[in-house]
């Protein structure tokens, strides 16, 4: 049996609300930032996220998203193949970078693995400057010899 509504449901193409995500953050005084680093042994993986003002450690999308990013996520074409969103991305990458081939990956570590397997030959020395954990793994897994070249 159909339900009778007291008020009609709006038929506008636009939803009658806005979605926003906000998280308050703070900047610690220099002395407290130094103390947090000392306590973590200068290991950025051991810092508390509440003590980090700008996260430059990860590419994992842990920071806030704009209203347009949320909207794109909610309306994205998630087809397994032939997604219109892929073709839009491919066109933009070709236009901006001029690349003929485009292989989107979910994160930097996925791209890193693909490139390491393609580009690194067994025994090849790969110089680096303070490796990220996955970077070193992917390079050594591909047979490369990682050399960390740090200059203070």
Question: What does it look like?
Answer:
With 152 residues, the protein is mainly alpha-helical. It has a domain at 105-152. Helix content is 36%, strand content 5%. The protein has 5 helices and 2 strands, in the order H-H-H-H-E-H-E. The chain has helices at residues 30-39, 67-75, 84-97, 108-119, 133-141, and strands at residues 125-128, 145-148. It has a two-stranded parallel ribbon. It is flat and about 70 Å long. The relative contact order is 0.07.
Q: Helical proportion? A: 25-40%
3D shape: flat
Largest sheet entry: 2 strands, parallel
Distance between the termini: 75 Å
Query: Average pLDDT, to the nearest integer?
Result: 84
SS field, number of helical segments: 5
**Order of helical and strand elements:** HHHHEHE
Q: Give me the count of strands.
A: 2
Beta-strand residue fraction: 5-15%
Give the C-alpha Rg: 23 Å
In spatial order, strands of the major sheet run: 1-2
Enumerate the spans where pLDDT stays under 50 for 5 or more consecutive residues. Answer: none
Oligomer: single chain
Class by alpha and beta content: mainly alpha
